[in-house]
Each structure stands twice: as structure tokens, then as C-alpha cells.
Amino acid sequence: MRITEHPIIEFKRGKKVTIYFEGKPIEAYEGESVAAALIAAGIYVFRYSPRHKRARGLFCAIGKCSSCLMEIDGKPNQMACMVRVRDGMRIRRQRGKGVLDGN
Amino acid sequence: MYSMEIDVLVIGGGPAGLSAAITAAELDHSVIIVDENPRLGGQLIKQTHKFFGSETNYCGIRGIDIAEILEDKVNKLGITKYLESTVIGIYEDGVAIASEEDLRVVHPKKIIIATGARENMLSFVNNDLPGVYGAGAVQTLVNVYGVLPGKRALMVGSGNIGLIVSYQLMQAGVEVVAILEAMDHIGGYEVHAAKVKRLGIPILLRHTIKAAIGNNKVEAAVITKLDAHWEPISGSEKELNVDFVCLAVGLAPSYELAAQAGAKIVYIPELGGWLPWHKPNLETSVSGLYVAGDAAGVEEAVSALLEGKIAAADAANSIKENKYAQKLVETTQKELQEFRAGKFGKKIVEGKRKLYASLHI
Questions:
Q1: Mutation to test the B interface, candidates A29, A52, A59, A86, most B Cβ within 10 Å
Q2: What is the complex's ipTM, to 2 decimals?
């Protein structure tokens, strides 16, 4: 969900871009993190833990905790909260330690 | 590989780092400031509330505006910025800074680490379920990106962060179902508590979260009452209809880089746990390596600004003796002391006292 009206903040969103989550197109805005774009689109599960395969999502949002590791453009272990969206970016849920070139 | 000699390297572009960089540059030293984000400001960029500050330090100004004022100063002073860059190690023959594009090595005379803090986790069933966030994470989502993680929130912790974020969630149209507090009193300032009470958010004292419930995502939370010994009272559990949980249960200094650089690390609960030992001038056990802000003990933005100034002025004076810089160290230390003189500064004062006494080098 995106906020459209706020009593004190005026959100200056960047250019509209399209990113692909598990192959499906999602609308995002330049300048925002992958995590923010996914949560805006109602996607909360970012990866599954290596041993118990538990669902994990965003926790700290500032690059400190590594809860949000995803495969982004074929590279595993990318912090979704720190990587900014780019038009055409391909994002996949990471399973365990992930695989290089996940395409 | 790129390599460069400079006077002061500042690591972290939040209030402490910005204040340090500005001070060092104003004292005519060459400065590089490094931050992993695309813009400077650190956590100020999500602080939409007005700061109490002090006479000289941004009283009544919103955090987001303080970030812009400081960024503007950095630009006017011509300070070199390495954004979207990470210091990956501090070595005897240089500091390695990596970005997506390259690896640089910088040779600074002095280093100021202002890496901030990270949010604490709490132990409960399913605390790893998506939809359990640090309160600061929710603040980032809502105030920086304008994205809501849900419609109904449970806030755990009634310190200033728990209270302020609850208020900001209500401003953004989220219902905060309750604020839980394990202690028998509210942790934060009365003025913040009054604001959330006026909005009708119940603050449940002697309560904590027992479990998050949901299939791949928070769909409810179970809370419980605590007895005087912090033990859950069986039979007091209640299920709340919430779709996300915010943990506002404190922060811990980000001390890893200082530890890698060889600084002695000590444990001081009043300051947030493990942190680099340092002197009143903010210098660590490694000569020429300083810490400032939350990395030097979790406190808040105004003290971070003051600590950054002290560290940079001391660093400047030790590069080249400077009476004005010496004076600046003294006056700013005094200002910091006055700032901490209130009721909420007590814990920090006690923590710093323990810290100074904990190790003699």
C-alpha cells in the first residue's frame, strides 16, 4: 500500500519503472529500495531460511540485519532494503544460500 | 586502484558523522565522508517530528529538515562524499572503501567512526515471521518511501521510539491497536506519551508479546501480562487482530568496524551493550581512531551532533595544534554535559562514567 495523502510529508516519487518479481511485473519508483517496492505491492516473503526453510522478510530496513537477502539480477545475498530499483530489474526469493545467476 | 591521502575520514553520514565532517572542514582540514546510502542524513531522513534540541542545536526543527541543513553545509564546504559506499576494512596501510563500481584506498590521518546503531530483537514465538519489524524499519517504510506495511499495528515498547513511531503510524492512517510495555511505567517522555494517549492508543503496562501468528505473514499476535518478576502470567494471554508488529525494544551500537580496526570493545548496558571503549574526547583505544554518536553509546541525535563536533575538533587539534579547536572541544563537552543533566540523561551519564572507569590504557 502506498500513502497518497499525509499531513506533513510530501512524497516526491521518482520516475515510474517496472521490476520483475519471480517473473511478474511490478510497478516501482526510481530512488526507492527493492524492499519498499515489494511491500508496496503486498509482497512480504523475501526468502526462505537455509535449514528450516522459514519465511523471512524485511526487519531493519537499513542494511544492518540481513533478514531481507534476495537474488537480484542473478546475484544472491543482496539486501533488498539497500538495493535501489532499476527498470527491468529481476528479483527472486532466495532459497537458503541462493544460487549464482539464478535465472 | 585509487589511493588518496587526507586528514580526516568520517564513516557514516548521520548526525554524528555530518557534524564531525563539517567541524573538521571548518577547521581547514581535508575531509571525506562515506555513507552506504544514496543520500546523507542517516536516520534523520525519517524523523518527521520536531526535536527538543537545545538553544544552539535545532530546537523545534524536524529531523528531516535538520538532515537537509547539514547536507547543505557539507556541500558548501566542498567536503568529498563517497555515497553508496562501504568501508570494508581499516588496515595499517589504508582504509578500504568499496562501492558497486570500484575499490578505493584512503590514507587518513584520523578516522571518525559514526556508524550508528542497530535495532534489538526480542525473543518470542515466530519472531522471524515476515511482518515483524523493527520500529525504525517501519519508520523508514512509512516516512521515507510512503509505503505502509499493514493496516493494524502492535507496538512493543513505550520508549521514545515506540511512542513517536506509533504517533507517526496514526498520522499515516494506520491503526495502532496497542503499545506494550514490560515495565510498570512508560519508558519515553511524557509529552510523547500524552500525544498517543490523546489519539486513544492504549498503553498496556506490564505486558509483552508472546507469539506472532500467521502463515508466511503476521495475521495476529498473542500478548501476555507479566508479573513483578517479568514472568508471563499464565491465563492472561489475549489474541490481537493485527497485521504487523513493531519492535521498539532498544538499539545496540554498531561497533563491528571499530572492533575490526583493533579498538577495545567493552560491555556497558546503559549505553546499549557492546561498544568501543573511548575517552571523553571520543578517541578509542587505537590512537587517532574516534567514535561518535550511537556507535559510542546509544543516545539521540542532539548528543550525536555534539559528539561528532568534539571528536572532529580533537582530531583537528591533534593533527596540528590549534587553540580554537581545543577551546571548541571544551565548550562542546560542557554543552553535552548540560544537555545530559536532565532526568533522561542520567542513564547515559552513569554509562559513560562506567566506561571511562572500565579500562585504563
A1: A59
A2: 0.95
